[in-house]
Write a structure and sequence with these properties.
The chain has 188 residues and is α+β, with helices and mostly antiparallel strands. Helix content is 23%, strand content 31%. The strands form 3 sheets. A 5-stranded mixed barrel has the order 6-9-8-10-12. Helix 1 packs across helix 2.
């Protein structure tokens, strides 16, 4: 059931989670799982007898994703920023929902391509960059960054063909470096 848009009030979030837990096999929310003044999902989950198993994954975009349960009902709290919500849904929520439905999600395939961009990042977290593929003069596939940066830039996903995955230990990528490419078609 769709419980619609719930106001950013602790009592409203608590009530919506309790209602959803009474009728669902899984609950998926977006927004309200970070640490802002209006982020009430974590506290509401605990107030309704639920508990978090994982919160704040070391990924970008999507750090404030939350995984837990209320009784026997799985809970997935996605970030509120549109790109972060989409990336965490594809990489975290979708495989879990498929598993709960009895399906066996296929292993996520990554394809080696050359970076057509430079990028620096913090160590210790995995990053996913929106990208498009082009073929260079030699026929090799090259991933180019697509759209503007930022987890709130939904338009950056509109023309992206896939995600470039940068592991936790990578701190910089230079043009020509090998990178792992995940086509969006493999995630859907």
């Amino acid at each position: 059931a769709d419980h619609g848009i719930v106001p950013d009030r602790a009592d409203a979030v608590r009530s919506a989670l309790a209602a959803a837990a009474a009728e669902a096999d899984a609950i998926v929310t977006s927004g309200g799982v970070s640490v802002g003044d209006e982020d009430h999902v974590k506290e509401a989950l605990e107030a309704t007898g639920g508990r978090l198993h994982h919160w704040r994954l070391a990924i970008k975009p999507g750090k404030p994703v939350a995984l837990g349960q209320i009784g026997g009902v799985a809970f997935l709290g996605l970030p509120g920023n549109p790109v972060a919500a989409m990336v965490t849904f594809l990489l975290v929520a979708r495989p879990l929902l498929l598993h709960l439905a009895g399906a066996e999600p296929l292993p996520l395939r990554r394809f080696p391509v050359a970076a057509g961009f430079g990028h620096g990042k913090k160590p210790g977290r995995r990053e996913f960059l929106r990208a498009v593929l082009e073929t260079d003069a030699s026929g090799a596939l090259v991933a180019h960054r697509h759209g503007r940066e930022g987890a709130g830039m939904l338009s950056s996903l509109a023309g992206a063909e896939g995600l470039v995955e940068l592991p936790e230990d990578v701190t910089a990528v230079a043009p020509g470096d090998p990178v792992a490419y995940i086509p969006l078609s493999a995630l859907i």
